[in-house]
Amino acid sequence: MKGVERYTELFVNRKDAYALQRRDSTYRLRREEVTGGVVEAHLVGRITCGWYAINSDGKIKWACLDADSEDGLKLLQQVSSRLSELEIPSYIEESREGRGHLWIFTPPIAPRPIRKLLERVAGPELEVFPKQDRIGRDGYGSLVRGPLGIHRKTGERYGFLDPETLEKVGKNLEDEISYLGTVRKVDGAIIAEALVEILDWRKDKARKPRYPVSEVDVVKVAEMFTQLEKRGSYFVGLCPLHPEEHHSFAVYPNPGRRGRWMCFHEYRGGDVVSLYAEIKGISYKEALRELEGMGVG
Fold first, then answer.
1. Which listed CATH number (3.90.580.10, 1.20.210.10, 3.20.20.100, 3.40.190.10) goes with 189-294?
2. What is the pLDDT of residue 211?
């Protein structure tokens, strides 16, 4: 069937398990391979699958906002507009009674950065999927009903909408599958930059240095361990605290006295001394002495 490969690329992150939707909208776990035949059966309506968000490596390739109220599509439209301002493409899928989902697609990345981003731009009425930063005790974590399948409770197939007009993008399943060819993924660097914009640690004046110290250049210290790229008034790069393939590390010069850093993979940060201390595996006081001795102001 045309479109099975593209659909699988976008939505099927975990290949060793899926869930079947029942008529009461609950799901039953199936511990078996997600083959092309399974995806095709979902698309033509023989079964309706729920896809798990986090794979066995702890990575995601999509995140989703669930709007479960009658004005849900309007709320998703507002979020989509805000994400567009942050240069993040998003895709709205209709559901029953004015409800819907908003989807963001990525290369394989850790869940936490994009979950935190969606929590910031979405209101309390919207639910973020995945709900976890890692697979839970059940070994599977969050799932979402696969788009373009038949909802077992209503018997209807719900498709995608234009985020600006909320008009249907297609008249039939073939149109919907063609629409998936226009989907763009957002990489980790853009997500990190969006979090910089949302959080704006540059304005964080409340965090005072723990010890008096002559000014230390946070950019110079960070560049001892990773390559940085300038983005306006801040810098992004690969985080030196853990292995990764996508930018999730940001440095903000002089938001206060020393500058600050932020790891969006683990959603934590601090001042330049704490960065040096964590990378070198030494205490804060030891890092302070070494930095002053190196003269990296």
1. 3.90.580.10
2. 47
